[in-house]
Write a structure and sequence with these properties.
The protein has about 550 residues and is α/β, with parallel strands linked by helices. About 30% of the residues lie in helices and about 25% in strands. Among the domains are: about 1-15 and about 385-450, Luciferase, Domain 3 (Luciferase, domain 3, Roll); about 25-35 and about 45-220, ANL, N-terminal domain (Rossmann fold); about 455-555, GMP Synthetase, Chain A, domain 3 (2-Layer Sandwich), CATH 3.30.300.30. The strands form five sheets. A nine-stranded mixed beta sheet has the order 3-2-12-11-13-14-15-16-17, sandwiched between helices. Strands 8-7-6-4-5-9-10-20 form an eight-stranded mixed beta sheet, sandwiched between helices. The protein has a five-stranded antiparallel beta sheet with strand order 1-18-19-21-22, with no helix packed on it.
């Protein structure tokens, strides 16, 4: 930008116009143009799906949903690993306006059950992995073991009418995927087309849950427009500093779980860009990712810091051909300079993105000055606004630290069923208050310097310590507990619980970890548990001095 900023506000004009189409309308437009091109490659499953195959399969699935009585605005949950049937159900629902609920695999069963209840799901679709999906579902929906598939009558989840199972293990109350597809095959395709035409791009269409680290997980609800703009804005990287073209999305490797956010970018790359997505999963493995990049001639991907560390730590890294890998979009935390230098072994351009489940705020560009790439600084994305505000809500002068707020075309609609939480985060004028602290400089570069709340960032996921502290505090041996983040070379930060026991009480670290399991997701179970002999340091107001406790923990652990 030529004009220098004097206050911490910037507006980046829209360069890429929105099509005005829903996801289904856009999908069918692209599929009709390039029917025989690969749309998805499922590397682990050895499945290659063209645009035409996915178009026909998803519309057949959509016919089955309409035959079950689902209509625009109803909710459908998808639960399990990254497989073809996940996207089959996803794209079928999106096309006819049925709202998909992307169920995270790592949630405890009690949370899964409550998610089904809160969202009033009519249908749940189970994947073929993990292998115990049938058992998991029957534990929270016991009627699956005894009732007929067309007469579930769930007592705990009365909204639920059908469970479709793509796995080989089958319960009496489930409909197999094969039988369900037969239901859709005989459905009038013109009715499906009419349902697609009735969907508007501003309709709510997808719910993705946060990690649940701050209490019960929030259901981040997106519209067709905000979902379509995610890959449009994140991956439209055209050229490097020398003017050489970059085809980042041409063959895009998706490693994130569909239930944990992968559906927001990688799953929709084909219909936005007309390109191919290679699904690496269902679970992440650095060796597999290296093979995928080489074998599939991957041009771009999105990786978190622990993914980068893992692939760069492979002992046979030099044996692979990464020459096709043009751009890697990294997120979740600041990438250390040493890691950025090592990343040149696998990709030409390592670019940071400032984004979350709620929206995509800013991104680096290969054309940014080298000092900006290394510092790092972000440019607000196409068609967005960013401002930095003080505690009084007023915009600050440039280079002053305050809360980062943004609004734009990728921003979420609301937190499902959480009016007060929505109002707290997203104001009536459209500004999203991120809770992150940062600055804007005179050239419009955004820098993130910290977090307004004392959160831990592990593997790119924000963890608020309060929920885990509450669980540990319930153990009879625990007198005081403080959960903090300590540095970790692979995951950025790890969870460390600092514990003071009651006099004469005895408990081991392993016992406390086991106490946490089932009450929080495995992701939140602390890696370190430290038993502190002295009282926790406090501030002048009597609150625990968290940063001093962090320093104590680092000293004890030798970090």
């Amino acid at each position: 930008m030529s004009q220098k900023l004097t206050k911490s506000y910037i507006h980046v004009p829209e360069k890429t116009p929105f099509s005005g189409k829903s996801i289904g309308q856009r999908f069918n437009e692209v599929a009709n143009q390039i029917p025989n091109k690969e749309m998805y490659v499922f590397y682990a499953d050895k499945e290659r799906i063209t645009f035409r195959q996915m178009q026909e399969g998803s519309q057949q699935f959509a016919g089955g949903l309409l035959k079950l009585g689902l209509k625009k605005g109803d909710t459908l949950g998808i639960w399990g690993g990254n497989h073809y049937e996940w996207l089959l159900a996803y794209l079928a629902s999106l096309q006819i306006g049925v709202i998909t609920v992307n169920m995270r695999i790592d949630f405890p069963l009690s949370v899964q059950q409550e998610v089904i209840q809160r969202l009033g799901m009519k249908v749940v679709v189970l994947m073929r992995s993990p292998s115990d999906m049938c058992d998991r579902a029957s534990q929270i929906i016991p009627e699956l073991l005894t009732n007929a598939a067309d007469n579930l009558n769930c007592q705990i989840t009365p909204s639920l009418k059908s469970v479709i199972n793509a796995g080989t293990n089958q319960c009496k109350g489930m409909i197999s995927l094969a039988d369900f597809m037969k239901m859709g095959k005989g459905f009038d395709r013109r009715t499906v087309t009419k349902a697609i035409d009735r969907v508007d791009f501003d309709d709510p269409i997808s719910v993705t849950f946060t990690s649940g680290s701050t209490g019960f997980p929030k259901g981040v609800t997106h519209t067709h427009k905000s979902l379509l703009m995610f890959p449009e804005i994140a991956l439209r990287i055209k050229e490097d500093a020398d003017g050489n073209p970059i085809q980042c999305s041409s063959r895009y490797a998706l490693i994130m779980s569909f239930g944990g956010g992968g559906a927001q970018v990688g799953a929709l790359v084909p219909m936005v860009m007309g390109d191919t997505t290679i699904v690496v999963g269902p679970t992440f493995d650095a060796q597999v990712l290296a093979n995928v990049i080489q074998d599939e001639r991957v041009t771009g991907s999105g990786l978190l810091i622990h993914h980068l560390n893992d692939i760069l730590s492979l002992p046979n890294l030099d044996d692979y051909d990464f020459s096709s890998f043009q751009a890697c979009l990294a997120g979740g935390t600041i990438i250390p300079h040493s890691l950025r230098q090592r990343a040149t072994k696998i990709t030409k351009h390592l670019l940071l993105g400032y984004a979350g489940t709620e929206g995509f705020g800013a991104i680096q560009s290969p054309t940014d000055p080298i000092e900006i790439l290394h510092s790092p600084g972000y440019v607000p994305v196409d068609g967005s606004e960013v401002k930095i505000i003080g505690d009084d809500g007023q915009i600050l002068p440039i280079n002053e630290i305050g809360e980062i707020c943004f609004r734009g075309r990728t921003l979420f609609l609301c937190y499902w069923g959480e009016e007060e939480k929505t109002k707290a985060a997203k104001k009536p004028n459209g500004w999203y208050h991120t809770g992150d602290l940062g600055t804007l400089d005179e050239s419009g570069y955004l820098r993130v310097v910290g977090r307004k709340a004392e959160r831990i960032i592990k593997e790119g996921i924000n963890i608020a310590p309060g929920n885990l502290e509450k669980v540990l505090d319930e153990h009879p041996a625990v007198s005081n507990v403080m959960v903090v983040g300590v540095p970790d070379g692979r995951t950025s930060e790890e969870v460390c619980a600092c514990i003071r026991l009651h006099p004469s009480a005895k408990v081991t670290s392993d016992e406390l970890k086991e106490f946490c399991r089932g009450k929080v997701s495995d992701f939140l179970v602390p890696k370190y548990i430290l038993f502190m002999e002295d009282a926790f340091p406090t501030t002048e107001t009597g609150k625990f001095a968290r940063m001093k406790i962090v320093e104590q923990a680092k000293t004890i652990l030798g970090l």
